[in-house]
Amino acid sequence: MKPDTRDQSERIAADLRAQIMAGQIPPGAQLPSIPALAAKRGVSTTAVQTAWRILKAEGYLVSETGKGVFVRDRHQFTVNAAAYFDPAERGVKYKLLDVAEVTAPADVAAALGEERAVLRRRLTLRQDEPVELSWSYYPVSLAAGTPLAGRGKIRGGAPQVLHDLGYPEREFVDRLSVRPPTTEEAEALDIPQGVPVLRQFRTVYSADERPVEVSVIIKPGHLYELSYRQSVSMDDRK
User: Fold this and answer.
1) DSSP string spanning 57-86?
2) Domain count, the chain
3) How many Å apart are CA 87 and CA 93, to the nearest integer?
4) Which whole-number Å values give the CA distances from 11 to 41, 46, 51, 225, in the listed order?
5) Does the residue 18 lie in any domain?
6) What percent of the chain has pLDDT over 90?
7) How far apart (Å, rounded) are the C-alpha atoms in residues 57 and 66?
8) pTM of the full predicted structure?
9) Considering only CA atoms, which of 141, 139, 147, 140 is closest in space to residue 164?
10) Residues 6+ positions from 225 with CB-CB distance below 8 Å
């Protein structure tokens, strides 16, 4: 086993973050004083102060003047991995950033089966806080000359357009990965230093498994958790 080479402040932040996420330190709980926690961990007070600064930037902790530092009553957004945000969900807004015909990135082109695509890039806001960036690609052979290639909002969204074109969405496959954010992602989503992003690579299929959309969806790691549900039967294992 390789030793943990992170500095003390990162280790402290990681331990506290895990305890908060697991509910071991509940919302509203007051943390020990900086000297007390430093003595308990056998580290400098500077290391504890830096750890708290990290967790405050991520939204886990909040200071109350003259009282101390408390766990903030803020939960990660739980997103069902089998669904987009409900467009009718209160407080969720979408800002269209760009629409263009482009040469798709290699992984997108391979999934679409075409190199040229119509790209719709947008920013999702939840209660006016930026929480998601997405790049949605549609085959030019389907999308050219349709509302998907226009710069306006689409009534019913892309699923309605695809349905009207005779290619209704039937299923999708998500590939998930974690990586550091790009500069564009960090700035657009106001991601604190050191926080990774969740990357969803989603391929949407119509009938006969024809790919009709590929979306790259970026979510800040400190704001989200993904939820999966799958029925399991012992009969399926035979």
Assistant:
1) HTTSEEEETTTEEEE-S--PEEEETTSPPP
2) 2
3) 8
4) 10, 13, 8, 21
5) yes
6) 68
7) 20
8) 0.82
9) 147
10) 76, 77, 78, 79
